[in-house]
Amino acid sequence: MLRSKNRIGLMMGACGVTMALAGSANVALAQGPIRSPEVLPDHRIVFRLRAPNAKEVFVGREGAQRLAMTKDDKGVWSVTTDAVEPDLYGYTFIVDGVGTLDPANSLMKPNILNTQSMVHVPGSGLPWEVSDVPHGTLVRHFYKSKVVGDDRDFYVYTPPGYDSRASKKYPVLYLLHGFSDDAGGWSAVGRAHVIMDNLIASGKAKPMLVVMPLGYGAPEILGLTGAPRTPDVGQRNIDKFAEALLTEVIPSVEKTYSVDTGVKSRAICGLSMGGGESIMTGLNHLDKFGWVGSFSGAMSMGGQDFGKSLPALDSGANSKLKLLWIGIGKDDFLLKNNQQFTEWLKTKGVTHTYTETAGAHTWLVWRRYLADFAPLLFR
Amino acid sequence: MLRSKNRIGLMMGACGVTMALAGSANVALAQGPIRSPEVLPDHRIVFRLRAPNAKEVFVGREGAQRLAMTKDDKGVWSVTTDAVEPDLYGYTFIVDGVGTLDPANSLMKPNILNTQSMVHVPGSGLPWEVSDVPHGTLVRHFYKSKVVGDDRDFYVYTPPGYDSRASKKYPVLYLLHGFSDDAGGWSAVGRAHVIMDNLIASGKAKPMLVVMPLGYGAPEILGLTGAPRTPDVGQRNIDKFAEALLTEVIPSVEKTYSVDTGVKSRAICGLSMGGGESIMTGLNHLDKFGWVGSFSGAMSMGGQDFGKSLPALDSGANSKLKLLWIGIGKDDFLLKNNQQFTEWLKTKGVTHTYTETAGAHTWLVWRRYLADFAPLLFR
Question: Does domain B11-121 sit in CATH 2.60.40.10?
């Protein structure tokens, strides 16, 4: 898990071997290494970028206003932030209007549409920080989806001590990513495996499997394929996602792993697009999911009429659902959408837990929501 | 496995929800999407980058000379290559001397010291291309290494149909990455899991597990920690790597998985630094490894005196080794080092297979070597 990075000249003099890097991207290296980002002991962050010919450089950081950087006489731009809360932050440099990753930092915040660099400002035992506890594993499965018609993958977190040969049956949380993430988003950015390791070690969460599927039922929603995005793409994206989950991913998981297949041992939650998918998939299949959660959910991707998306939902759900949990940040652009949805739930007499927290539409919120939500499950 | 990328405006009008991207890195997006890279039907590649204020932009591609790009009146730089062989190529833009990833492409070639973008020029059933065959899984394990003193990971490829509950015992290939890669390098860049799926489906390779550990016994060799690189760092890097492999990774694998623990069912090979590590670890532990391979190996990282690194090696190895395979590209800067090593092997009377192929010190060579080497194993 060596993920910090510095572009240095790779003269391994001690070894007698010059390990020349392939390619010709290392023009800047001859001028010496740049250290970026540098996290100071007081939690200020120094960002640096060598770009002698640039006219204007900013750094944009997750959850913050962008900052102008200034150039020194060696062509190195830098800026020092105020002290920030310990967390994992995505960031990008904007060089003369062009977004670019930090070339001195190998820690990435992968995203299909907007990969950024990432900086860790260390705290003390925060949920997403690796600690000296037993670790689970991450299993990446590959399959061809007949429902969607593409090659895709899903990840399975197995908790410490999981043994498919043992008789113990584990509950399963299906954990969905947001629009423009891929199936690896909840591990690479969300650190779900680290959060679960820590929650399980402290006894806060029950040992469980966490399955992280690809969340696109209609991948053309991403706008990458050249295929037209028809007006029904939002609803089709949800419907085909649910079909792939229910007929492909869940049967594969329940065949491969030692899991409890009862409705009270199956949960679904997700963030943003995945929050909407969790609500629609979970509440339309109360025979499958006893626990449903939404983190900053996009509740209207299938349309503004909740009754059309959830035609059968009424207070009869209350005897089936162990938990319906909805969280949204007060600075999230989806706040009103979530308020409208929970008001609608009240008109239907559906019991739910609704919480408005600090924060916007960012991973800073979603890692905390997972740490709050997972302990509630399978009780 | 959605990995193609385009930075587009994310107005999901069809869904009634504006999915604003976090951060402020999308200044350029308002000017419309850039398509890069575009692979033409005749296998030329068009690279594009919007950088209106740049004075000079090049693209550096793996295994090729860098190409100057030219700017159009909208500030978009582009260049079209000659037709290239179908393959996976790393590349980077060099903008006024600063290396940068392609912001329009989410397909990465991750590397601790030099992450690049990657472009796939499709062929017809090449070993590293996903095809409609049964797929194995990739399992990522996390652990604290007592030998090295850090938190690290290793990956395990399990072949299609692998079942830890079954009685079948599988052979294991330990597959090592090169200097500046991490434990994910052989899957993210080398596509080892895809290569193995294809080889196994066609009957060319026996079903086997492939274990991909982190290859640093002395991580300060990367020059990132601030710790001094003492003259013995190369030898220590090999020695501690071998100790971590033999006392931590292998016991963990053999406890967790249904594997054959006989010497004839254990192979080790690797690329560059990992090639040297495979030679030194394998040939110093003939009681552990019956099959040893080196891909473009760095044979002198422990010093120029092969006899000092392999003090006990003599023709007695021939009755123990099923295969000692050494491959090197004719344009590789380590060609002479490999020639010297094989000459030394001859003086020791050690039987080996030595092949000089086309190619330089690049992943283009190493994917092919794995496809050549794996079929020879466990026969």
Answer: yes
